[in-house]
Amino acid sequence: MQLLLNSVLSIVILCTLSCVQSKKIADEQHCEVCIKTISTFADTLSDEDKASAEKIEKTFKTYCSNVKVDSKEHRLCYYIGALATSATYSIGDLSKPLSWGIPADKICRERLAKTNPQICDLKYEKQIDVNAVDLNKLKVKDLKKILTDWGEAADFIEKSEFIKRINEVKDKYIKSTTDKNKKDL
Length: 185
What we know:
By secondary structure, the chain is mainly α. The chain contains 10 helices and no strands. It has 2 domains: 32-121, NK-Lysin; 135-180, no CATH class. The longest helix has 28 residues, at 2-29. The N and C termini lie far apart (62 Å). Belongs to the ARMET family. InterPro entries: ARMET-like (IPR045333), ARMET_C (IPR019345), ARMET_N (IPR045332), SAP_dom_sf (IPR036361). It comes from Rotaria socialis.
C-alpha cells in the first residue's frame, strides 16, 4: 500500500513539474512580438520623453512609421492604432503605463491584450538551423520556406528536389561552424 501511494505521489509531482515547465515556455512566447517591440521602443526614449504620455504617443507613431511593412512589428503597430490605416486607437493603453514606468511585459500581457487579444497572438517565426536539422524530417512547407527566405527558386514538386537544392546552395547562405571556429582563433 505504501509503495503504491509513493508511486502515485511521484507521478503527481512529475506531472506538476512538467506542466510548470511547459507553462514557463508558453509564457516566454506569449506576446513575444509586443514585448520585444515595446522594449526596443522604450530604449529609444530619453528620460524626459518617458515622463510624458503625449510624447510617448507621438514618438511611437513615428517609430511605427519607420517599421518595415508586412513585418510582425508593423502588424502590432496596426493593432495598437499607431498607423494612419489602423481601425482602432489604443495607444493610450501603451503610453500611460509606459510613462508610469510599468515594464513592457506587463503592458503587453495585462493592458494591451485586454483591448485587443490579437496583439498577443503575434509570434516570431522560428528560424531553422539547416546545419543542425535532418532535412529529411522537415515538412515540404519548411523546406520551401528555407529556399524562399534565401531568395532561391522553390518551385519543385518532390521533397527530394527541395532537399537537393538546399544542399546545393546552403554554403552560399550559411557559414559553417568550422569557419566560425577559425575566426575565433
